[in-house]
């Protein structure tokens, strides 16, 4: 558990919760961040700030979906932040936020990149001390929205890379489809999580900022459909190349097969008694094949 006390341009990192001022007022703002690795931390903070049992349980474990409730003396918000790009675990991390007039409590199971960045940013900002609790929470939620935007941007970059590989004919169709399915699922998870925060985010942040982030989710979904179209087009192009080769092979071999069939008919013709006719037939078949290849090359069929 960590505690940071803001007082205008002064930032103090407190070693323990008992060191917090007994009465927070004026320009002072206390931020307490709970690491759930210690089971007693949530109960300790809940007792210190006079939180009810339901809020204390949520600080200890985020077992349900998003929450946005007003308890009069404080506001309780549960938001979900996207994981880091190389994280192989669940796509979202629950972030509990309890906000009073001059204090903010956050709790989470694992380190959250956006929370760490926000902590570094506000710790060096001389303007943070002039914020009250709700304004501080609104600023934090802006950073959460930024994390969603960054997640969608990363996905767009991966799709651009996918499109380049698909256009170059690299990769295997089955693996590429599974990759697009995974990306589509990730976009769906992020979009549904973002939509679940609509009431909290529109109440505490700018509604247009939220709507623009939702639009980014829609754009990411459309980009996946576009990448699938690129993959289908590339697969169709590859199929056309294969059919072109098979058709050209048939055109080359068919005249030779026809001549060989005619010459192999079981009729007693004096011409068939001459050995040199065999070599003439071979030359004609080879000439037809070479002529077909030359015409195909001149017309850019191959």
How is this structure best described in words?
The protein is an alpha+beta fold. It is 58% helix and 15% strand. It contains 8 helices and 7 strands. The chain has a 7-stranded mixed β-sheet with strand order 2-1-3-7-6-5-4, with helices on both faces. A hairpin with a 3-residue loop joins strand 6 (92-99) and strand 7 (103-108). Helix 7 (207-263) packs antiparallel against helix 8. The chain starts with a strand and ends with a helix. The model has no long low-confidence stretch (mean pLDDT 78).
Chain oligomer state: single chain
Give unreliable regions as ranges. Answer: none
Which range does the strand content fall in?
A: 5-15%
Helix content: 55-70%
Secondary-structure element order, as H and E?
A: EEEHHEEEEHHHHHH
Alpha-carbon distance between the two ends? 69 Å
Give average pLDDT, whole number.
78
